[in-house]
Specification:
Distance between the termini: 24 Å
Number of helices: 11
Radius of gyration: 21 Å
Largest sheet: 9 strands, mixed
Helix content: 25-40%
CATH class of the domain at 46-94 and 131-197 and 276-363: Alpha Beta
CATH architecture of the domain at 46-94 and 131-197 and 276-363: 2-Layer Sandwich
Mean pLDDT: 94
CATH superfamily of the domain at 46-94 and 131-197 and 276-363: D-Amino Acid Oxidase, subunit A, domain 2
CATH topology of the domain at 46-94 and 131-197 and 276-363: D-Amino Acid Oxidase, Chain A, domain 2
Structural class: alpha/beta
Strand content: 25-35%
Length: about 425
């Protein structure tokens, strides 16, 4: 059976991999000249299984209220005359109920654990050449009240079968000696030794080359315009080719992996996906003093900033903006992350040579991605991964391949399938 995957980011290319190895004939289409050129291009680099709690949690409404009107806050909301934004916000608030947060956290944790296993198995089977490190993630806390909650948070992670260690300042510095150069070291931390860091763009580039060698066809610089459908069946995908001509790509089944743009494509079909674009930023900074730069991937919990060492580059990412599909960068957000680097690891990097990036994270109110069958007979979803696209990529794609093959996926997750959801 021929499957056409729409989108060549993390979700799309990993879907192509697992579908190909499940026996499907696979093609991929993307508007960019190569894979992983949009949201997957320069993310924070973390495989952060140790962060399963969604943004929507009981403490979120109060935190967001405190941040309103503060342009430097980790989350900035720009109200728009857009009913999609307001509906998404209302659903987000509903997901902040304690029982919903517990349900969502358990589902994300199960999929994240499985996904890390899938990534490691894929890497072992293929020996893909991309920058990665298995040194864990150290979550840093600078507030005494948050430090007091560390034992409870470690216990919560243990309940989800996620290894974590409560750390005082001395232990944080022992795990990551570069923290000793900080003017204000952390008061405590949580160390997740099984987590990873890696360059998602390099990973997808290498996987794309492997897929091409195995016969998967890629249609780059090909814009997806619309889905042709008759009743409940997708009959083809209307596209614009690189030369500007129109064409239609046909397949037996279709997988939608177009991130924040997924809802726009299927809305004319009557499908309403609860996905809203949340803009995030990153800066990639060359390392000039290796001993002063961290080796372990870090998360500043208060600032919602993550930091990963990718070879000779320090990748720092974070912040969130709800402002529709506006992709214009805010230099103040980029400057804030560079200031974070300078404050915490002064002299470690060449800040003048930093490369800034921003992209739209496809975020659901629950933070759970949409994986499985749509309301149409031959259209499937693998989209809506929010900030956890890299963490959940391989597991989501492997589960999708199982669903499309008629098998029950392993993780305990609410897939979009009446047989296994």
């Amino acid at each position: 059976m021929h499957v056409l995957v729409l989108g060549a980011g993390l979700a799309g290319v990993t879907s192509a991999w697992y579908l190909k190895h499940a026996g499907f004939d696979v093609s991929v289409v993307d508007r960019q000249p190569g894979p992983a050129m949009e949201t997957s291009f320069a993310n924070g680099g973390q495989i952060s299984v140790s962060h399963p709690e969604p943004w929507a949690n009981p403490g979120a409404p109060g935190t967001i209220l405190r941040w309103l009107g503060n342009d430097a806050a980790p989350l900035r909301v720009t109200p728009r005359a857009d009913w999609h934004q307001w509906l998404w916000a209302a659903r987000f608030l509903r997901e902040c109920l304690p029982w919903r947060t517990r349900r969502n956290t358990a589902a994300i944790a199960a999929l994240a654990r499985y996904s890390r296993e899938c990534l490691q198995a894929l890497r072992g089977a293929t020996e893909l050449d991309y920058t990665h490190a298995r040194r864990g993630i150290l979550h840093l806390f600078f507030d005494a009240a948050e430090v007091a909650r560390i034992p409870a948070r470690v216990a919560e992670l243990a309940a989800y079968a996620i290894a974590a260690e409560a750390c005082d300042t001395a232990r944080c510095l022992a795990i990551e000696p570069a923290l000793a150069h900080m003017a204000r070291p952390p008061l405590g931390g949580i160390y997740a030794p099984d987590d990873e860091a890696g360059d998602a763009k390099e990973f997808i580039d290498a996987l794309t080359l492997r897929l091409k060698a195995e016969g998967v066809r890629f249609h780059f610089e090909t814009r997806v315009d619309a889905l042709d459908h008759q009743g409940g069946l997708i009959e083809g995908v209307r596209v614009t080719r690189p030369d500007g001509s129109s064409a239609r790509l046909d397949a037996s089944s279709y997988v939608l992996c177009m991130g924040s743009y997924s809802p726009l494509l299927v809305a004319p079909l009557g499908e309403r996906l609860p996905i809203y674009p949340v803009k995030g930023y990153s800066v990639s900074v060359p390392i000039v003093a290796p001993a002063r730069a961290p080796l372990v991937s870090l998360t500043d919990e208060a600032r919602r900033i993550v930091c990963s060492r990718l070879g000779n580059t320090l990748r720092v990412a974070g912040t969130a903006e709800l402002n529709g599909y506006d992709l214009s960068p805010d230099p103040r957000r980029e400057a804030a992350m560079l200031a974070w680097v300078d404050t915490h690891f002064a002299g470690a990097t060449d800040l003048d040579a930093a490369e800034a990036w921003c992209g739209l994270r496809p975020t659901t109110p629950s933070n759970r991605p949409l994986i499985g069958k749509s309301g149409l007979l031959n259209l499937y979803y693998n989209t809506g991964h929010g900030t956890l696209g890299w963490t959940l990529a391989c597991g989501s794609a492997a589960a999708l391949a199982d669903l499309m093959s008629g098998r029950r996926p392993r993780p305990d997750f609410p897939f979009l399938d009446s047989r296994f959801g």
